[in-house]
Write a structure and sequence with these properties.
It is found in: Cell membrane; Endomembrane system; Membrane. This protein is mostly helical. It is built from 19 helices and 2 strands. A two-stranded antiparallel ribbon has the order 1-2.
Amino acid sequence: MTLATPIAADAGVASLVQNVDWVTIAPPVIAAVTGLLILVADLFVPAHRKGLLGLGAVAGLLAAIASLVPLRAGDRRTFCLTTDVTTCSYVADRFTLAIQLLVLGGALLTALLSLRETRHRLPAGEFWFLLLSSAAGAALLPASRDLATLVVALEVASLPAFALVGLRRGDRRSSEAALKFFLTSVTATAVTLLGVSFVYAATGSLHLTRIATANVPGDLDTLARTGVALTLIGFAFKTAAVPFHFWVPDTYVGAPLPVAAYLSVIGKAVGFSGLILVTVIAFPGYADVWGPAIAVLAALTMTAGNVAALRQRADRALGAVRLLAWSSVAQAGFLLVPIAAAGYSSDDQIGSTVAYALMYAVVNLGAFAVVALVARTHRLNRISDYRGLWTTHPVTALTMGFFLLCLAGLPPGIIGLFAKVTVFSSAVDAGLGWLAVIMGINVALGLVYYLRWTAVLFRAPAEAPARLPGEAPAEASGTADGSGAAPAVTAVAAVPAPFAVALALTATAGILLSGYPQLVLRFAATRLF
């Protein structure tokens, strides 16, 4: 298919014919088209049949994942300049496919966790449209190779996420979280657009490869450096790097749990993908600007996240979600380390970030799946509510313990240990000894709260207080601030099929990666660009 008709050769003008490789752009297109079809179908599907919309979303995401298979043969490009076929706006390479698999797989697990939620609490049509639209933007971003497409993909991924956070109607906490998320994100995007305009003014191009080779005049060098710094801000916000992290805990707590899981993984994938592309491909000549800045951000981010996570009390309402929120901030600091190292070393360190991100996506989505499962019977979702989970749901307790050990980097979570070692090695190889020391300290800090939560899972259940005949259970009469004795996890409820599938997929993937870590660690040993 072509986007324009050719101009006569004797006119002395280059052809404007643009071929579109539909196989290459299939993953984001399938997600976007599925979202549009579900939005239209929602007008005609009766209320008692709304569950079909969720199944359609799951089918669309599976089709989008399947469309990645033909792209494994080699790099493919489309939307290239007619005057220079090597300069393209969309590239499907190893980096793109890895991030698209992470994004679409994470969206699929989010959809599984949301099937029951959309039947009872959330408007189905709007939810599935917003989720698929955000996933389409997130899948487009790693393939983007010009700043205009990067910013558009960033906003397509972000704008539906604002609505997803505030979609729980009548919930003040949800509305406040969505507003805070929206205002901070819009501010960061405005700053990023200003930076992009500075970069374009200094280099005369928006394509990443041309920016990297542009000959910037000396009187425009300061403008270019300012543009580089400002451009990074929007992506730093998406990664929840300090000081752009303050939206995370309130947003995760206010959002529906599946949406919080989505933001913790896919939102970070979007931010890190953009950050990698603009630093390594577009701005390698300005590594003296972004290298030290990202190194400092990495140290501050992992430290702030771990310290805040350590302060979470076991009896605090929604403490489990808050701990995972601060844990995600700390993990973002580890993910920033290889990007910072790339600014100090000629070796390609980015593969370590990709390997770590794939590990983190699997285990963090699995942990959120367990949290959402426990929230069905313990609406306060305190860490103390997980006490005795082993006695009522042994498989779920073992699975959650495994996920927490992976995040901590302890056996049997081998993949978490190896991922941390690769990140640590990238800092050492780049000569960032001070950052490696800070990372080691933060790994030890993380062990405290991860092991503390793991121990709660296997402790003996607390004695439930005696109740008078007809009195409501303690959980139903609990206060919003989480005060009082924490009841044991005594109610044995059947695990819904979508939750079971999500837990099975994440646990199987985690065990497989721990047994054969080369599946993701190979990214750390090869050049991606």
